[in-house]
Amino acid sequence: MPPPLSASGRFDLHPAPPVSDETRAAKMKNPGFGRFFTENMVVIPYKDGAGWGRGILKPYSPIPIDPAGSVLHYGQAIFEGFKAYYQPDGSIKTFRPEANANRFNASADRLAMPNLPVELFIEAAELLIAQDRAWVPTSVGESLYMRPFMIATEAALGVKPSNEYLFVLIASPAGAYFPQGVKPVTVWISEDYVRAAPGGTGFAKCAGNYAASLVAQHQAKNEGCDQVVWIDAIHRKYIEEMGGMNIFFVYVENGKTIIVTPTLTGTLLPGITRLSLLEVAKELGFGAEERKISIDDWETDLREGRMTEAFACGTAAVITPIGTVKSTRGTWVIKDGNQGPVSAKLRETLLNIQHGVVPDTHGWMHKIV
Ligand code: PLP
Ligand code: COI
Question: Hey, which CATH number is domain 185-354, 3.40.50.300, 3.20.10.10, 3.40.50.2300, 3.40.50.1980?
Fold first, then answer.
């Protein structure tokens, strides 16, 4: 018998039998972040000349890779992250998945990897979420985190772009990203390590960026901090990002509340949460600006009362307030270390859009089932 096909005919469907309700419920009770995975995954192979082959929805399982596989040596590896949310009417929707598909291809371009057609990226997500929909948590603030990635699989030790790749999509039920929930974090401004330099891979979501960040994150921990804040590679003074998240500052200027985020210079990851918050803020009556903020600005504007809050944003943790900033220059405390009202309002508004509590006036939500 020929294998069952997806509606488009581009994927073979060989799903695993579902785990028992008890097994799933035990994992979903306190999912944390990225600890448990659903029964299935989607894989699409690529070969130079032939292009993308037939995809398959199949049981979650290890990926065989040749010891000479180029990803293991030269690190051609990119990934994305987006979430599926349970809606009040029982349907499931994802947030701006085309934006993730487009950024995936921007990352692929930078790493000399092939582009994956946006409709294949979306269809892979639709198939996996529909199959494993029992894993989408129902409470606000919880979701099914989707992790698409692409690796270079050609067995060859010459330094060159691989001629074979694998696209893989896995899914993981997600609660709070940081174990402490939305409690403000303490950050360490790293003056020793750089995340990204002009001409480098900062705007791409490639595995190597995260590998190179770990030692700075380790240093931040040694300084008693939760997260590292990156500054720019050239002037060594402009704030870029916090760990794996974009960063915002809240200002009150002439009586108006403005959220300010560092300008995208090519060294920052263009976050989809960042972009969405710039729009949401305006609808809430706040100003929203992209501009450069230096370490000096952070310290002075805070001391002089112009800056009232700072927070980080990203798909995984949504919005995380920054309560304390540490650097070689000393320690500054923001809002007595508490979450401020502007970041709280933005967080609530974005979560309400994602969970269908308020209407999606932007067309950001993509219905899956
Ligand atoms: N910055 C970095 C370095 C990231 O890894 C991420 C996460 O994807 C973000 C920012 C936030 O991006 P997004 O809002 O699209 O999740
Ligand atoms: C984010 O979604 O904000 C991230 O940084 C993803 C992270 C787990 C790499």
Answer: 3.20.10.10
